[in-house]
Amino acid sequence: CAIMVTRSNAMRGRLVLHITFLLGVTAARQPLELLGPGSNPGGGAKSQVDRGVNMSESTLAVIILAAGAGTRMKSKTPKVLHNLGGLPLVGHVLRTASQLSPTHTVAVVRHERARVVEAITALSPEVIIADQDDIPGTGRAVEVGLAALPDDFDGDVVVLSGDVPLLDDQT
């Protein structure tokens, strides 16, 4: 599963996010316009569904989530650095990301930062490194990744987990 977020700065000063969950080769787009805090009356997000996403028609950025400790693996090696077929898991994800021809790729890191950054930059030196702070969670990692994009970026953002090596550019 991958997540695609469209970031638009052009809608009357409001940040508009379009969230798409990519499952297999199909996608269901769910535009969310952030209208206010939480579920307060008149606030929150409103969604609509639009089937069929063609990522090649817009500007694209990729955020790779590589900050987790991977404690369930019971290993001293960071989860994203475990090898599969001669390449670390994150290496497979970086390869998939590059096949999408993004204008920007961001890797969000935290656990064993130095080792993970060394591996990522050795494989893809153009990747922007974003450091996740002490606030845990996937949502926070995505937020940090979005903040690392240039202020004028206006397009789709695909969010990939750094430990899912079997995704390909068609997925």
Q: How many DSSP-defined strands?
A: 11
Number of helices: 3
Give helix % range: 10-25%
Largest sheet: 9 strands, mixed
Please provide the ordered H/E string of secondary-structure elements: EEEEEEEEHEHEHE
Q: Quaternary status of these chains?
A: single chain
Which regions are unreliable across 5 or more consecutive residues at pLDDT < 50?
11-16, 21-56
Describe the secondary structure blueprint for this structure:
Layout: E1 2-11, E2 14-23, E3 26-34, E4 45-47, E5 50-51, E6 60-66, E7 83-84, E8 87-88, H1 89-99, E9 104-109, H2 113-123, E10 128-131, H3 138-148, E11 155-161
Parallel strand pairs: 6-9, 6-11, 9-10
Antiparallel strand pairs: 1-2, 1-11, 2-3, 3-4, 3-5, 7-8
Quick take:
This protein has 171 residues and is of the alpha/beta class. The protein is 19% helix and 36% strand.
